[in-house]
Structure formats: C-alpha cells, structure tokens
Specification:
Layout: H1 10-23, H2 26-32, H3 54-66, H4 71-78, H5 83-92, E1 100-104, E2 119-124, H6 127-144, E3 150-153, E4 166-172, H7 181-191, E5 192-203, H8 208-230, H9 238-246, H10 250-260, E6 263-270, E7 275-281
Parallel strand pairs: 1-2, 1-4, 2-3, 4-5
Antiparallel strand pairs: 5-7, 6-7
Helix pairs in contact: 1-3, 8-9
C-alpha cells in the first residue's frame, strides 16, 4: 500500500490506491483488516436505511480508503465550507474537560484533530484511515499539550470496550456507512455512561422532495468536482450518492434511537439544509 508521503500527486494516489485495493483478495483483506461485523449474515447486495449488505460493504470500504488523499478538499466543496462549522457544533454538544470521548468512524482525523481538553478514543474499521489519522491528530494534540489519542480498529456493531466507559460519543458522516445502524446504536448505548450523550451528524433528508434535491446536489455538483479532482469518471464519491439515496429520513433515525433505548432524542437540520445533527442521552439507572 502506498504511504501518505506519496500523496502529493492526488490523482496518482487515487488511481494507485483504488487499483491496489480492488486487486487485493477480499479473503486476504479480511484476515488482515476484518471489516465486516460478526452480527449474522445480511444479504450480499442490499443497501437500505438500516443495513448494508456484505458485497456493498466491501466495495464501500475500498472506495472510502481511496478518498484519503482528497477527503477534506472535496468535503469542504460539497458542503460549501460548512463542514467545519458543523464539527464545531458537535464539539459544543459534548463534554469539553475531564471526560473520555469516543468517535465512531473517525476517518482520516478531520474532526479529531481539533478536539482538545479531553481524552479521546478514535475507532474506524479501516486500518488505512487510522494510519492517516494518527500522525495528523496526535501532532496537533502534542502542540496543545493534550494526551495522545487511542486509535482502535473496530466496528460500530462490535465496539471493543467495556460497558459504561465513555462520557460522550460522536459520529460525523460515518453513521450512514455503518454495516448495521440499529446494532451500532445499541453498542454505542452500551459503552456510554448513564447520562452521557451521543451526537451524530450526517446528510439531511427531511422528506422525499428534500431527498431528491440532495441526490441532485451530490450527483451533479459534487460528482463533477470529484471527477476533476480524482481525474476519473468512476470516482469514490459515487458511493456518497448511493448511500444517501438509501439513507432514511431525519425522523427515521429519531425513532431508531428511541427504540434502541436513548432518551431525549432530538434532531436539528442545520444551515443550509444539508446536514442533520441527532442527539440522544443514555438513561440514568
């Protein structure tokens, strides 16, 4: 696999990463970097508002890993620069001192690098994402005098932590890609301390009409830019469109969080109507 030091030429790295990943044996990849949670079999080709089938999951992970060199650049373009504001809103909703926080699906560290004053654990199913995040995040934390982040390879559906371990948890633009969202929410609930909060941010879909507008934005506007930056027609941001189409509405996930066991569940669609912030609290005994 190519190192981040070779990421100067973004188009070359994109082509090389995706070519390497697609040519690798899936069986070999699962031995080295097992992505799929052991939560029972799902149909191999299914993506809906709760689950992602195994074949689609494998292809999704490959495409997510291929985005690493251009991840932040395209995300800022796709959100008209609002993504940094949304990350600040998440930080404001979580404990800011004397706390231990969990980020589920940390990606290349775009959110974690600016979290300060707390102990932080970053989890991601991709070893390549963690490889990208670790130097980026810990160098920033060292400059501020914060403790190093604990990076853990794992899945939302099988969190490798004890019950009641965290004072808060978050997931930013990762929830949509979870293998099984309901199972993952149950795991987050388990590892949170009573009274602790989870905060989730993902693309908004208030209703069918809003969903069509979101699909057009991603397919046409974001897709055109991604083709230019990646230098290929078959760019990984096509998966953003695919998972958005099957992603549920804001209300779907309010209900799901309540059914899993969270209380005081709220959802806020944030300007300019492109993202939703969900919040829920683990009940006190």
């Amino acid at each position: 696999m190519f190192t981040l030091g070779e990421a100067r030429d973004r188009k070359w790295v994109y082509h090389a990463n995706l070519r390497y990943l697609r040519n690798a044996s899936l069986d070999t990849r699962r031995d080295v970097c097992p992505n799929q949670p052991n939560i029972g079999s799902l149909p191999t080709a299914i993506v809906d508002h709760e689950t992602i089938g195994s074949e689609d999951w494998d292809e999704l992970i490959l495409n997510l890993e291929a985005t690493i060199p251009v991840y932040d650049r395209i995300n800022r373009f796709a959100t008209i620069g609002q993504v940094d504001k949304w990350r600040r809103m998440v930080r404001q909703r979580l404990p800011s001192e004397d706390a231990k926080l969990l980020e589920v699906g940390c990606g290349p560290g775009s959110f974690a690098e600016d979290v300060s004053g707390v102990d932080l654990v970053c989890l991601d199913p991709s070893a390549l994402m963690l490889e990208a995040a670790k130097p980026r995040v810990n160098s920033k934390r060292q400059e501020r005098g914060d403790s190093e982040v604990e990076f853990v390879q794992g899945k939302a559906e099988e969190l490798p932590f004890n019950d009641n371990s965290f004072d808060g948890a978050c997931s930013l633009f990762s929830f949509r890609d979870w293998y099984d969202k309901r199972a993952g929410l149950g795991e987050v609930l388990r590892v949170l301390k009573p009274g602790a909060k989870v905060v989730i941010v993902d693309p908004a879909k208030m209703n069918r009409i809003h969903g069509v507008l979101g699909w057009l934005w991603m397919r046409v506007w974001v897709g055109a830019y991604a083709r230019i930056i990646c230098g290929v027609k078959d760019h990984p941001w096509k998966w953003l469109t695919k998972t958005y189409v099957t992603f549920g509405t804001t209300r779907d996930y309010v209900r799901m969080m309540e059914e899993v066991g969270f209380e005081n569940v709220t959802a806020k669609v944030v300007f300019p109507g492109m993202a939703t912030i969900w919040e829920g609290t683990k009940p006190e005994p």
